[in-house]
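[Discussion] Sanity-checking designs against the backbone

I'm trying to build intuition for which residues belong where. Below is a structure token string of 73 positions. I'd appreciate it if someone posts a full sequence so I can compare it with mine line by line.
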């Protein structure tokens, strides 16, 4: 049990990095007032939403025959 605890603790500590990844760091100092800021666009959360309402049941046999490939009996 002690070995398992040691392995788990070492695995957790191995995930802690002493420096952040290189893709997070930038070449522009944070106090540069003329630094280029990339343009971002606003995408609404509900942009592709289609409202769906409950409907009354319909004749399922007719719907099934209409949606089939026509090879049925």
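Best answer:
Here's mine. Compare freely.
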């Amino acid at each position: 049990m002690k070995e398992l605890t040691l392995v788990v603790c070492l695995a957790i500590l191995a995930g802690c990095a002493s420096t952040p990844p290189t893709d997070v760091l930038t070449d522009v100092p944070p106090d540069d007032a003329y630094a280029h800021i990339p343009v971002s666009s606003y995408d609404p959360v509900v942009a592709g939403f289609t409202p769906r309402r409950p409907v009354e049941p319909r004749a399922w046999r007719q719907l099934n025959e209409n949606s089939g490939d026509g090879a049925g009996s």
